[in-house]
Amino acid sequence: MSIFESENRLPQTRLAIISYVIVGLMVLLLVGFWDLQVVDSDHYLQLADRNRIRTVPVIAPRGAMLDREGRVLVDTYPSFSVLLLRDDEQQVERLLPQIADGLELSLDDVRQQFEAAKALPHFQPIVIKPEASPSDIAFIESHRADVPVLEMLMVHRRRYPPNGFMAHASGYVGEVSSDQIEEANGRYKPGDIVGKTGLEKQYNEQLMGTDGQRRVVVNSVGREVGRLEQTDAIPGKPIRLTIDYDLQAVAEQDLAGKKGAVVALDPKTGEILALASQPSYDPNDFAVRISGEEWQRLNDDPEHPLMNRAVQAQLAPGSTFKILETTAMLESKAIPADFKVFCPGYATFYGRTFHDAEKGGDGDVDLHKAIVKSCDVYFYNVGQRLGIDRLSYYATKLGLGRKTGIDLPGEDTGLMPSEEWKERTFHQKWYPGETISVAIGQGAVVVTPMQLAYAYSGIVMGGKFMQPHLLMSDQPAPEIDFPISESTVDFVTQAMYDVVNNGGTAAASKLPGIEFCGKTGTAQVVSLDKRSGGNKDMKNNAWFVGFAPRRNPDIVVAVLVQSSGFGSQFSAPIARDIVKAYYDKKQGKLPQQLISKAGSAPGASQAEIAQAQPAPKSSEPIGEQPSPPSARGEEQR
Amino acid sequence: MSSTRQAGGIRDYDWWMMAIVFAICSMGVLEIWSATHASGLAGMHWKQVSWIGLGLAGMFLVSRLDYHAVLDKAPILYLIGLAALVLVLAAGHSRFGAKRWIPIFGQFLQVSELVKLIIIIAVARFFADVRSDRLSLGDLFKAGALVAVPLGLILLQPDLGTALVLVPVVAAGAFLAGLQWKHAAALLLVCAMMVPVAWHSLKPYQKDRVTTFLRPEDDPKGSGYQILQSKIAVGSGGFWGKGLGNGSQNQLGFVPVRYSDFIVAALAEELGFAGVFVALALYTALLLRLIQNAQRAKDRAGMFLVMGVAAILGFHVLVNVAMVIGFMPVTGIPLPLMSYGGSATLFVFLALGLVMNVRLRRFVN
Hints:
The complex is a heterodimer. Chain A is of the alpha+beta class. Chain A is built from 26 helices and 21 strands. In chain A, the strands form seven sheets. In chain A, strands 2, 3, 4, 5 and 10 form a five-stranded mixed sheet that branches. A five-stranded antiparallel sheet of chain A has the order 12-11-21-20-19, sandwiched between helices. In chain B, helix 2 packs parallel to helix 14 (342-360), helix 4 (74-91) runs parallel beside helix 6 (137-155) and helix 10 (224-237) crosses helix 12. The longest helix of chain B has 33 residues, at 263-295. Chain B has a domain at 2-73 and 181-360. Chain B is 68% helix and 4% strand. Chain B has a three-stranded antiparallel sheet. Chains A and B meet through helix 1 and helix 2 of A and helix 7, helix 10, helix 12 and helix 13 of B.
C-alpha cells in the first residue's frame, strides 16, 4: 500500500490563514506604493528631474586686448578643466588612486586637493586639473561607468604674450575672491574668473561678458543624452589699447635683463604707446592655476617681479627734477633768468658741504649750461633761493606727489615734500639744508616713471597735462591746465635739445635727423646694510626723460633703470631706441629688428621676441633697500 | 496502483490561473521592451517570450506526469540536486562574481532554480510521510536538515537570495504539517539569537546592503543608490504613471537592472500606482488560486506540493516588491514571470506544471 493511500484531513484552517497573510502583506505593499506614488509623488518627481537634468555653465569668453592698430595682444583659447564631483566622498576616496593615475597627477596632490575641499558643500565640484590634456579627456570618457566622479568643463583660457611681455599693463586674471564677491554686489558668483591686476582688473566689466547656462538631460552614467534649453553666453567685449605693439616690443627688448620701467606716451593726447616693467612674470602662469609654490616665489622674490615699476616704483628723480625746478624758477620769476653761479665742484650751505657730480666743477654756469651739463651747484643755489614751499607748489602743479590718473589699478602718488608735509608727518620743522638735497632730486622727493613722463609732457606742451590712458577712446582724455609761458617752454626744450645734440650729458644718444631732446638723471641709492657696513660701492638709479621733436612733441619717453649707473649710459639709449622706432615706423620703415615680424601674426612675433629676451638675472646684486617706498635716494653730496 | 490513476482532460486545466499568468507575463514582456528598446539590450523581450513558450511546453510535460511518481523519486532527485550544487561550486561558470551558472543546451542555466524545484518536491514528500496532525520536534529538525544542506551549498556560491527562498518552502510545509506554536516561538527565539553570528558571516557587500537598508541616507551614491533610485522611479510615477517608454528613471538607466530585479520600479514609474495595483492584484489572485488548488488537492502530498510552489512564489513576489519600495534590503530576488530571466521563468512554469498535475488528479481515485 502506497503512502499516499492513507488520506489525512487537509489543514483547511491553516491554508486559510496563509491566504489572509498573503492578502494582508499585499495590502501593506500597496500602502507603501500609495505613500510613494500619491502622497510623496511631487517630491520624487523633483528628485527624478534633478537626476536627469543638469545645469551646465556656458562660460563666456573674455574680450581680447588689441593694440592701437588692432593687433591681438591678449586673447583666449578654448580648453577643458577636469571637475571632481564630490557628492559621495567615500566613493571619491576609493577612486583617488585611479583618478591620480588616469590624470597623470600625483596621488598626494589629488588627495590634498580633495581634503582641502572637504569644508565645501558636497554638491559643489572642484577643479582637480585646470587644463585637461587629450589623454585626460580620453580617460574620463572611457571610465564614465567605473569612475563616475569626473566631469569636464569647457572654459576659455586667457592667453598672454610669452615671457611677461607687457605683463604689468595687461595684468592677469584669477578666480574671484570672496572679498570681491561681496564688493561686487551680486555681479560675481563663486568660480568666476575676473581681472586681478592691470587692465584686466581696470576694464573687467567690459572684458568679462556674461556666462550662459545649458540645461541638459543626462543618463545614469552622466552622459549627455539631450538638451532642454540654452541661455547663450554673452562674450566679453574686446578692448583696444593705445599701446603700439612695435614700440612696446622695443621697450621690452631694451629693458630685458634689467630692472626698471619704460613709459612712452603721446603728450598731445595722453595715449600711452608703451609701458614696460622689469623684472616681469608670466601671466599665463595665473591663467591656468598658479601653484602655491610659484606664487610664493613671485611674492618673495627680492626683485619684486609682480610690481609694476612704471606706476609703483617711487624713487628719487635725481637730475630729471631740474627741469621742473627750472620751470618753477622761470615761471615764478623769483630768480632772474640770467642768474649765474661759479661752480668749483662743491658748495657749502648751512655749514655743510654739498658736492657736484663733476669733480673739477663747471666754472661759470648759467641756467642753460646748468641743464646741459647737469650742474648740481647751480641748482643748489636755485633751490635755496626758491625755498621748499615754492618748489613744492610748482612741482605739485607739474604732476609730482599726486596720481596721474592713468587707467591702471595701484598707481602710487610719489612724494613732493614741503614744510607743511614735514610738520604733519614728523612733527618737525623743515631744515633749510633739506631743500638743497631736494633741489637736485634727492632727499624726500620721490617719483614714479609715469609721473616724470606726465610732468615732462605737460611742460613741453605749455602746461596742458593730458590724463595718461591705455584704453583707446573717441573722447579726448581729461586734461589739467597749468599754463606755462611760451618763453619758458622754448628755453627748457632748447636746453634739453642741447643735452642730447650739443655736447650735453646725453650726447651719445643723438639721433640723426630727429630732434631728440631729453634730460638725464642719476639718483644715488644706498642700502641700509651697506651704509652701516661703510661700503661705498653703490649702484645708482639711471633716469632719462626724452621727447621729440623739440617743439610740439609727438612722443615723450621716461626710462628708469635701477641699480645700474648713469642715466646717460643706461636709460638714454632705451629712450632713443623707442623714439627712433617711432619715427622709423612713421616713415614707413619699421625698426630693423621688427621687419621680419611685421607681416606675421602677433603671436608669432611674440614668440620671436620671447627668444630674443634673456630671462631676468636673479643673481643681479641688489644695491638698495628692497621695498620701493623706503628705497629713497640718499643725498650724499 | 498509481498507474491506474487517470489524469483529467484539457478542460480540467486551471484556465483561470493560466489567464492570470498570461496577464502577468504580458505586463512583464511589455515592461522589458520599454526598459530595453532604446538601449544596447534591445530585443530582450523576444528572448523572454521564447522562454515563456519553452516554459509553457515544460509545464504541459510536467502536468502529464503523475505527481505521485515524481514524489516517489524524491530521494534520487534530492541527491541529483546536491550533486549539481557541488558541481557548480567546483566547475561552474562565474558571472557577476558568483558561481551560479552551468552551461546546458548552449544556454546558461542557473542550477539553484532547478534545486528550488527539487526542494519543493523533497519537502512535500517528507511532510506527506509525516502522518500526524501535530508535527513533532524530531520531524521538524529532520525537515530543517533536509533544507539546510542545499541551502548551505547555495550560500557558498554565494547567493543569499536564492538560499533564503528555500526557507519559506520548509516553513509553509511545517506550518501546514501541524507545527506547534511553542516550537515556532522557540524557533524564532533561536533565530533571533543567531542574528549576530549570521551577521558575522555575511560578505561585505551583503553587510552593506543591510546597513544601507537600515539607514539609506548615510550612503546615497553607494549601495543605497539602488534603493534610492528605485524609490525615485516609483514615487515620480504618480497615480497614472508617465506612460510606457516615458519614464526618465527607467529610460536613462537610473533604475538598476530595470528589466530584471527592479522591473516593478520601471513599471511603477511608467504605469503609475494604477499599474502597480493591477500587477499586485494579479499576483494576489495567482497566489489565492494556488491556495485554492491546494485546498482541493486529493491528498496531503498534493497539497504540500502546491503549497511549496505557492510559498516560493509568494516569497519572491513579496520580497522583490518590498525591496523596490525600500521595505526590504536588496537581495537580488527576481519577480516571478515578470523579471527577465530564462532559468527563473522556466522554473516558475515547471512549478506551475506541478500544480496543474495535482489539480488534474484531484478527482482521480
